[in-house]
């Protein structure tokens, strides 16, 4: 038995049931290994930043009684982590990985946040192993910036970490495992990529038992509900220039694109669990933890295999579960047929990426092909059918000008969404947009402390940080006026 301590280095001060924790915990425990979790989320004294307060203040979130219902610790997060390590005595400490969840909730920067937590703790007698987007995109940059990491896992890591744990248990050398990057004699060794996980049922059921009750509480449209982050699928058929998804696509060899912005051979990249497995997991979560909201983290919900969604909708419709789903998809997938499917799946709200108003900019700079009329029609249809609509907007793209932000505000006025979110553009390592931003001189080749909800790291003189912060703080109000 190998002992693995997961660290959740979430700094947002609100519960996030990171999917990588549940997927890795499930597969390791199923194979006889021991797993524990140190969750830094609720350390108010010297860790949490309280993202919920920030985005409630700028009216992206509706006010809720969340803070009055969640308990925070006044203990020192570093002291408590040290105690956990000394008590549990793990063989491996692991703190960041890829899942469908990597697109949001501050996950991109987990590798750095976890490193900061461990950096102050001396004499750790465990392998420090981590993964995630930065590790996949550029292990060389990660080792340069975060030198005390022992091993990186590139790509999907559930089966890789399991193989490492099995080899440690059996006292075998694990450094030949595919997907690993490590340092040997001051040289970085990158092993061959591991196969993509083509059958997600293999790593189910995901295990949510490591989370405390605090973590399941979630502010949602002015209320506090019991919720989990959940994935049915992994992958996206599109290759938007700014998206972390493209880094995973490249890692697994999906490099060819169509003129419409999709990847070729996408059926081998887009994978999903079977409807039976999905329903069983949702049923257990609803009954065991009273989960009422499933925050689906699938990159593009309506590109999931249609038969899977139809079969799942039958299972959900025939159940007595009082649940609702919040999903993310692209506007062009919304039509009368999909509306009925979404209702049968008990979808309560949908987040859709507008990014910005200019169709030319989206196509030319972002490799995102989304027809303006289809966006307008999608928001209209959802309103008619009383499904809540959230418009996702991004500010601070390389080569974006201030008039682009102003036109995006005007476009949101036309759409009249129920909710509006605004993210700072983040230069995700290895994406085309990040590379263009380096060439333009507005980003370094490795930007630390990236968080699309809390800060911009742009050095653009024309569209300055001050301007970006102004629009982030006032975007919703400007749409309302």
How would you describe the overall organization of this protein?
The chain is α/β, with parallel strands linked by helices. The chain has helices at residues 19-30, 51-57, 66-69, 77-88, 110-119, 133-137, 139-145, 158-169, 213-216, 245-251, 275-289, 306-317, 336-344, 359-366, 372-384, 402-415, 432-439, 465-480; strands at 3-8, 34-39, 92-94, 127-131, 151-153, 180-184, 187-190, 217-220, 223-230, 233-234, 271-272, 293-296, 324-329, 347-355, 388-395, 419-424. The strands form three sheets. Strands 2-1-3-4-5-6-7 form a seven-stranded mixed sheet, with helices on both faces. The longest helix has 16 residues, at 465-480.
Helix content: 25-40%
Distance between the termini: 61 Å
Radius of gyration: 22 Å
Which stretches are poorly predicted, pLDDT < 50 over at least 5 residues? Answer: none
Major sheet attributes: 7 strands, mixed
Total count of helical runs of at least 4 residues: 18
Strand order of the largest sheet: 2-1-3-4-5-6-7
In short:
This protein has 481 residues and is an alpha/beta fold.
Topology readout:
Blueprint (H helix, E strand, L loop, with lengths): L2 E6 L10 H12 L3 E6 L11 H7 L8 H4 L7 H12 L3 E3 L15 H10 L7 E5 L1 H5 L1 H7 L5 E3 L4 H12 L10 E5 L2 E4 L22 H4 E4 L2 E8 L2 E2 L10 H7 L19 E2 L2 H15 L3 E4 L9 H12 L6 E6 L6 H9 L2 E9 L3 H8 L5 H13 L3 E8 L6 H14 L3 E6 L7 H8 L25 H16 L1
Parallel strand pairs: 1-2, 1-3, 3-4, 4-5, 9-12, 12-13, 13-14, 14-15, 15-16
Antiparallel strand pairs: 5-6, 6-7, 8-9, 10-11
Helix pairs in contact: 1-8, 11-12, 16-18
